Amino acid sequence: MAHTINDDCTSCGACADVCPVEAISEGDGKYEIDADTCTDCGACVDACPVGAIEG
């Protein structure tokens, strides 16, 4: 199951910078993860400074 980004997202972009498959993009004021592209590697979870990524 792909990771998700909750409402704590501050749109800093740290998650998108580290995603090896470019599954994260900015949309509607916060970043979103494309579930079809996400490989569940967890790099975004470690990179998020506010703990907004779950899964």
Strand content: 15-25%
Number of domains: 1
CATH topology: Alpha-Beta Plaits
For the record, give the distance between the C-alpha atoms at the N and C termini, rounded to a whole number. Answer: 7 Å
Describe the protein's architecture and organization.
This protein is an alpha+beta fold. It has a single domain, classed as Alpha-Beta Plaits (2-Layer Sandwich), CATH 3.30.70. Helix content is 18%, strand content 22%. It has helices at 14-18, 43-47; strands at residues 4-5, 24-27, 30-33, 53-54. The strands form two sheets. The chain has a two-stranded antiparallel sheet. A two-stranded antiparallel sheet has the order 2-3. Strand 2 (24-27) and strand 3 form a beta hairpin. The chain starts with a strand and ends with a strand. The mean pLDDT is 94. Residues 1-28, 29-55 form the 4Fe-4S ferredoxin-type domain. One of its GO terms (molecular function) is electron transfer activity. InterPro entries: 4Fe4S_Fe-S-bd, 4Fe4S_Fe_S_CS, 7Fe_ferredoxin, PSI_iron-sulfur_center. This is Ferredoxin. Ferredoxins are iron-sulfur proteins that transfer electrons in a wide variety of metabolic reactions.
